[in-house]
Design goal:
alpha+beta; six-stranded parallel beta sheet; six-stranded antiparallel beta sheet
Length: 299
């Protein structure tokens, strides 16, 4: 059976490009067909790989997409992989790299695991985002981490809604609606809680709200969240995963629901990955102090 792997890389980092060449050579030597994106092929300059357009069709029939870079690179890659349901395997060459499965030191072992088929696939919840003004759709998009409604210049005046019922009105810098995967990203910086990836929930986190009741909220994954900018106040900006931007005129309503299509992540067997368990990832990424822990008492 012919196996195909798509390799994508943060070409702005020479170390990442060198790592991509090593990955491609190792996969080709194992008899696996390798694809690279046309926007990255010249920088990689690696023989033996098929060059494909940087469009969602690039992942069609691909077994997995290996992503070398940071979380930003993986979020970009998710736009290509999600439509085909192709699993993403992130190798962290950035700073935090919460979405990555392996660190660069484990690169060879990670590739060997792919060659041997020693990996599982887990699904991560996404959110579907719809923005309307006067009933007309002005944005229809999605996010893996979060969507944020943010001010452009002056403070926003918004009304938050949960399941069709008004919750509160805030003067604020913005509002974040996040997935559990995104709880360690922008929502965390804004004071939101850390939510374990296997928990099914949606988060709403106000940003610098001028109100007594402006705490982060964790609601059912079946809920519908909405943020309305008031008609007589400044408009704002809608961001999804920090990548897709839409201007929001005054009086815009943004609705957030659980995404119809998840993003799939590959989880390796037998590699010191950053992915299992999630508690260890938190300790490693945030350098949390755990000295003195002795573990549970064994009977």
């Amino acid at each position: 059976m012919n196996r195909t792997v798509l390799v994508t890389v943060h070409t702005g980092r020479e170390a990442a490009v060198e790592s991509a060449r090593l990955v491609i050579d190792r996969l080709v030597d194992a008899g696996i067909t390798v694809r690279v994106l046309d926007t990255e092929a010249d920088d990689i300059g690696c023989l033996g790989a098929d060059v494909v357009p940087g469009e969602p069709g690039a992942t069609k029939d691909a077994e997995v997409m290996i992503v070398l870079g940071g979380d930003g690179t993986l979020l970009r890659s998710a736009e290509l992989a999600r439509p085909a349901g192709t699993p993403l395997l992130g190798v962290n060459l950035g700073h935090v790299g919460f979405l990555a499965e392996a660190e660069v030191a484990d690169l060879a072992s990670a590739v060997d695991s792919v060659v041997a088929g020693r990996y599982d696939v887990e699904e991560r919840m996404t959110i579907d985002v719809l923005a309307r003004q006067n009933g007309q759709v002005i944005a229809d998009t999605w996010a893996l981490n979060e969507m944020s409604v943010e001010k452009r210049d002056r403070m926003l005046e918004v009304v938050a809604e949960i399941d069709g019922r008004p919750l509160s009105r805030w003067g604020c810098d913005g509002v974040i609606c996040a997935t559990p995967t995104g709880s360690t990203a922008y929502a965390f910086s804004a004071g939101g809680p850390v939510v374990w990836p296997e928990v099914e929930a949606l988060l709403m986190v106000p940003i610098s709200a001028h109100a007594l009741f402006a705490r982060p909220l964790v609601v059912s994954p079946r809920s519908t969240l909405a943020v309305e900018t008031l008609p007589d106040t400044p408009g704002g900006v809608l961001w999804c995963d920090g990548r897709r931007r839409f201007d929001l005129p005054s009086g815009t309503r943004v609705e957030v629901r659980r995404g119809v299509q998840p993003v799939r992540l590959a989880r390796l067997h037998g590699v010191e990955s950053t992915g299992a368990p999630f508690t260890d990832r938190l300790v490693a990424k945030f350098e949390l102090p755990v000295q003195g822990w002795r573990g549970r008492v064994r009977p």
